[in-house]
Each structure stands twice: as C-alpha cells, then as structure tokens.
Design a protein that fits this description.
It holds the Pfam family DAO. This is FAD-dependent oxidoreductase. GO terms for molecular function: oxidoreductase activity. The chain has about 375 residues and is an alpha+beta fold. The chain folds into three domains: about 200 residues, FAD/NAD(P)-binding domain (3-Layer(bba) Sandwich), CATH 3.50.50.60; about 60 residues, no CATH class; about 80 residues, 2-Layer Sandwich (D-Amino Acid Oxidase, Chain A, domain 2), CATH 3.30.9.10. Helices cover about 30% and strands about 25% of the residues. The strands form five sheets. A six-stranded mixed β-sheet has the order 8-2-1-12-18-17. A four-stranded antiparallel β-sheet has the order 14-15-13-16, with helices on one face. It has a three-stranded antiparallel β-sheet with strand order 4-6-5. A hairpin with a 5-residue loop joins strand 14 and strand 15. Helix 2 crosses helix 5 and helix 2 packs across helix 8. It starts with a strand and ends in a 21-residue tail after the last helix.
C-alpha cells in the first residue's frame, strides 16, 4: 500500500487520528513502537471527562465539550465497525470533596471556569453530603466527606478496549499497522515526506507525529519545537466487588468487571515507571477517608505509566511550515479527546490544514520573551 498519510504513534491519540483518516478514505499506515516504549495508556483511568477542564484556556473547554458531545455517535460507529463493545457509559461523574473548605473551593473553581464561558449552560452542580448519599445509597461515606461536584456530561470507558477497537477499525477501513516500527529519521524528498524505520522506508504526502513522549525528538526533524515532559501516574486496583459505585469519580472508579481503580498520582519522576510503596499508601489513605469499608478490600495490582505533559498541561496541535504536510498532535487526555481527534482533527489533516479554532494550541504560546 502506498499511503496518503503516515501516523507515527499507535497509542490512543495516534490511533484515533488514523482511524478518522481511514474513515475519510485516506490510505493510512500507522507505525507503532515496541513494548518498551513509554505508553500513557498504561496508566489511563478511562474517564471521558468535561467538568473542571479548561481553566484559563476556554478553547480547551470548548474542544473537550465538542469531543464529549461526539462520543455517543463515535462509540456507536466504532462498535458497529469492529464488533467490540467499549463498555462506555455517560451517566455523569463525581469529584469528591473532603471537608467544607474543599467543597467551597471546588464550587468557586467551577463557577470561575463557567464565567469564562459566556453563554454556556452549566453542566455541573454541587451535591452536599445528603444529596450524594441519596445519589449513591450503597456507599457509606467517611465522616470527612462534605459532598462532591457532579458533572452531568461525564462518563467512562474501558481504555484498553477503546485502543483495541481503534486499531481494529483502522484495519477494517483499509489502513495498515506496523508494530515494532521505531522511527529513525524523517526527511523531505521530491515525493513528500520520507520516514525511515528499522531497515525500511516509506514516503507519503502527509505525516502525523503522535508519538507521545517520543514526539519531541521527531518533531525537531520537521522543524517544530514542542516542549513536553513525562509525569508519572500510579494506579491501584482492588479485587472484584459487588456493584456499589455506578458513577465514575476523579480518583475512584468501579469497572464493569467489579474491580475498583484507585488513582492516580501526579509525580515528577522523569522516565521512572517503577511503582512505590509510598504512592500505594497515599492513594489508600485517601480512599479510606472517602469510603472506609474499602480498608478491608484486597489490592491485586499496582502499576505506573507516564503522562504526556506540556508546560501548561494543554494539548499541542501544529503543522510544520518547513515540511509541508507534517503535523504534530500531543495531549494527555487522549481518551476524552478521541472522538474529536477521529472527527474534526482527522478531517483537517486530510484537507491539509489545521483550522483557526486550533490556533490556541500551537506551541508558539510558550514563546514568551524573557525579561532583560
């Protein structure tokens, strides 16, 4: 296959873009790395989340809102194409508050964010302890729990099934995936952009760099300087329990299999993906403050992964002026933004130019002159 587009990076971000391009009749080659790569999906909580996102960057709130609105149709199409159920639910989500001060702080934070979005209806509400107990009658809350914020549009999905379905959907739509394809070099040639990996080369008119933490070095080869750093996130998983938590929460989610995911830490630990007893103890203590009954539950797994973080935590979308046809896509909310990546972003890349609506996400926002 002679590709129209080569996508570097087979994680959730790259796979969603590749799937969306293939749906638009583009011939797509997805180059996936090897098992030793630092994959953000390893520490993914599976939230499809809107509440609280976009503080001081309304464009990110709007982008997230657009993606969340696309998710139901996105799931339906992906499931129909692949036959893979994603266990997606959109019944709302919670952010718990320990103590009245934390409850008021959360309320003010969400109100401030809402005020930045003139004309938008509020998609959240604050629930006091009584309202929270009424909403989740099977949970016995710890004495410090003052309530929670409730995001009406929030939801969750199985992130591993999502990634598998995106790969399968890409192939079903005529695309190809090469595993173990670590890219060595990107160069311009007379036919487009030549990508070298292993002992092979492929040339295409368009190229998307969505390789997570590996994107910085690759982007330099197409004249783009994208600042990115790793942030470690550790997650705990309990044994299977009878259903008691039907809604996902920031830091606590019961899966369809009955296990409870607890997390995740936010640690500046470089590229260290080891797990620590300190993190396990910290996560466990907070969880027991929320739901004391979980103190008697067995933990069956702990793992860590690296998030892709920019200086302000928001995505980077850019196209290269020196290498026409080359694009970069970076973010740490690959699950939430998967729907818009497979829709609007893929459509723009297929057309050959990013829209003005993505200008706020260009890395030039970090080019602030230093004071003399």
């Amino acid at each position: 296959m002679q590709p129209d587009v080569v996508v570097i990076g087979g994680g959730t971000v790259g796979a969603a873009i590749a799937y969306g391009l293939a749906a638009r009749r583009q011939r797509v080659l997805l180059l996936d790395g090897d098992d030793g790569d630092f994959r953000a999906a390893r520490a993914n909580f599976g939230l499809v989340w809107l509440q609280g996102k976009g503080m001081n960057m309304p464009a990110y709130q709007q982008l997230t809102r657009s993606s969340v609105a696309l998710w139901p149709d996105f799931v339906a199409e992906l499931t129909e194409t692949t036959g893979i159920g994603l266990t997606y639910e959109q019944n709302g989500g919670l952010a718990f508050c320990l103590g009245e001060d934390e409850f008021e702080k959360r309320k003010l934070q969400l109100q401030r964010l809402h005020n930045q979005l003139a004309g938008e209806d509020a998609d959240w509400e604050m629930l006091d302890r009584a309202a929270l107990s009424k909403l989740l009658p099977k949970v016995q809350w710890g004495p410090e729990v003052a309530g929670a914020s409730f995001g009406r549009l929030d939801g969750h999905v199985n992130p591993l099934k999502l990634l598998g379905a995106l790969h399968a959907g890409l192939v079903r739509r005529g695309g190809a995936i090469r595993s173990g394809a670590t890219v060595r070099e990107i160069r311009r040639d007379g036919e487009g952009l030549r990508v070298s990996f292993g002992n092979e080369q492929v040339t295409a008119p368009k190229l998307v760099i969505a390789a997570g933490l590996g994107s910085q070095a690759l982007a330099r080869q197409v004249g783009l300087d994208v600042p990115v750093r790793p942030q470690r996130g550790q997650i705990l998983v309990t044994e299977r329990l009878a259903p008691f938590l039907p809604l996902p929460a920031s830091g606590l989610r019961q899966t369809g299999e009955g296990t409870v995911m607890i997390g995740a830490t936010q640690e500046e630990a470089g590229y260290d993906v080891s797990t620590t007893g300190e993190a396990a103890a910290k996560l466990s203590r907070k969880t027991i403050r929320l739901v004391p009954a979980l103190a008697d539950v067995a933990l069956v797994r702990q793992w860590a992964g690296l998030r892709i973080m920019t200086p302000d935590s928001y995505p980077i979308y850019a196209q290269s002026p020196s290498h026409p046809g080359a694009f970069v896509a970076l973010c740490h909310s690959g699950v939430t933004l998967a729907a818009v990546h497979a829709a609007g972003l893929a459509e723009a890349i297929a057309a050959g130019s990013l829209p003005a609506s993505l200008d706020p996400f260009h890395q030039r926002r970090f080019d602030v002159p230093k004071a003399a």
